[in-house]
Amino acid sequence: MIDPGSSAPAILQILPSMASGGVERGTVEIAEALAAAGFRALVASAGGRMVPELEAVGARHVTMPSLADKSPLALWRNAADLDGLVRREGVSLLHARSRAPAWAGLMAARRSGARFVTTYHGTYNEDFPGKRLYNSVMARGERVIAISHFIAGLIAERHRIDPSRLRVIPRGVDPRRFDPAAVEPGRLEALRAAWRLPSRRPVLLLPARISRWKGQKVLLEALAMLPPPRPFAVLLGDFGRGLYAEELLRYGTALGLGGDFTLAGHGEDMPAALLLADLVLHCSTDAEAFGRSVIEAQAMARPVIASDLGGPRETVQEGETGWRVPPGEPAALARGIARVLAMPAEARAAIGARAQAMVRRTYTTAAMQRATLAVYRELL
Predict the structure, then answer these.
(1) What percent of the chain shows pLDDT beyond 70?
(2) Under a CB-based contact definition with an 8 Å cutoff, are residues 305 and 356 in contact?
(3) Would the CA dihedral through 81, 97, 208, 302 be positive or negative?
(4) pLDDT for position 6
(5) Average of pLDDT values for 23-49?
(6) CA angle 149, 155, 157 (to 5 degrees)
(7) How far lies 49's CA from each of 66, 107, 164, 298, 306, in Å?
(8) Dihedral of CA 272/21/119/41: which sign?
(9) Which residues, other chains included, contact 14 with Cβ-Cβ below 8 Å and sequence gap of 6+?
């Protein structure tokens, strides 16, 4: 636990909530690195299921419910609250990870004199007037972290920032956690029972939040194109309000897939989930800023088919560390699934081994932590 009276520099990360997802995972990982390096690691958010995990790595969470609110009134209130927090805790640097909290954080940093860093986590659509201005706060940090070269190019194109402020720091996985040898058989059996996996059928895993652009319907349509007995598909991810999950269940039934897939909900044990899969899929129809689920699967030596756009173009080398298919094309995905599952097991294992070696060489949590702390030290 952080000692509030400590003279160690304090770094404050701000985001809407600590529910689940890549942004939240990155927040925990940087908090862990900060605490280990002797900083005081603070995180402000509306809270969520990952707060205990955050506190377990040595960080302190400050609950600010309105950080999840995007209204102008909340923005001004959050700016004042963050300014007060910065002054009370002697915060040296604010690191904003989402747009609405970033606007409040930018104002608080300017008022207090704290340094300001942003991480550009998404593609951030521009589907109505003024949206580029709203998004631009993520390019206003004294240092702007892009989570992939794809995102770095997007920032340069949209916001024309000085290249000297931009740092490319890819997301990473922890090879201690994402290690096939570290997964006990009991964890696999527990998931196998929970998912009611049929015996002697290949398992397809799509680990992604249940959302239209994550491509669950694309997978169901592709699955329906495969001849029986089909592989069994596990759609693993948070349901949100559950409306789209219900729609997917109805859609799968209409396609005649009643016994061929399951919606498994939030995945607590992702290493075990990935290890159960014969093939891991990334089916997003919009460009993914990075695609952490892809490198998690590769770290577990799983063969991966990914949509050919956005961040996975950097992590999936065709035929070497996985395969890419055109996004939103079920027929192409079906052909890819059939081709990979028809490969000899040794050939699939070789692809998985090359992917695992690439991740351990390039995309680790430790590398991401070191690079991010180096950015902080540039400003401190």
Answers:
(1) 98
(2) no
(3) negative
(4) 56
(5) 97
(6) 105
(7) 17, 28, 37, 26, 29
(8) negative
(9) 43, 44, 45, 67, 82, 94, 95, 96, 97, 98, 101, 102, 104, 105
C-alpha pair distances (Å), 2 with each of 55, 98, 194, 369: 9, 25, 38, 19
- Chain centroid offset of residue 190 CA: 25
Q: What distance in Å separates the CA atoms of residue 246 and residue 338, rounded to the nearest whole number?
A: 27
Instruction: Please state, in angstroms and rounded to a whole number, the distance separating the CA atoms of residues 120 and 155.
Output: 8
**Spatial separation of the C-alpha atoms in residues 312 and 291, rounded to whole Å:** 6
Residues 83, 92: Cα–Cα separation, whole Å: 12
Q: Where are the beta strands (DSSP E) in the chain?
A: 10-14, 40-45, 60-63, 91-96, 115-120, 143-146, 166-168, 203-207, 232-236, 261-265, 279-282, 304-307, 323-325
Give me the sheet containing 166-168, strands edge to edge: 60-63, 40-45, 10-14, 91-96, 115-120, 143-146, 166-168
Least confident span in 20-24, 221-225, 254-258, 307-311: 20-24
Under DSSP, the state recorded for 364 is B
- Residue pair 323/306 in contact (Cβ under 8 Å)? The answer is yes
Q: How far is the C-alpha of 358 from the C-alpha of 362, rounded, in Å? A: 6
Longest dimension (CA), the chain: 65
At residue 274, φ and ψ (nearest 5 deg) are -65, -40
- Cβ-count burial 232-251 (b if 16+ within 10 Å, e if not): bbbbbbbbeeeebbeebbeb
Tokens of 252: 């799968």
* Rg of the chain in Å (alpha carbons): 21
**Whole-number pLDDT of residue 1:** 37
62-67-72-75 Cα dihedral, nearest 10 degrees: 30
CA angle 275, 281, 286 (to 5 degrees): 145
User: Rounded to an integer, what is the distance from CA 347 to the centroid of its chain?
Assistant: 29
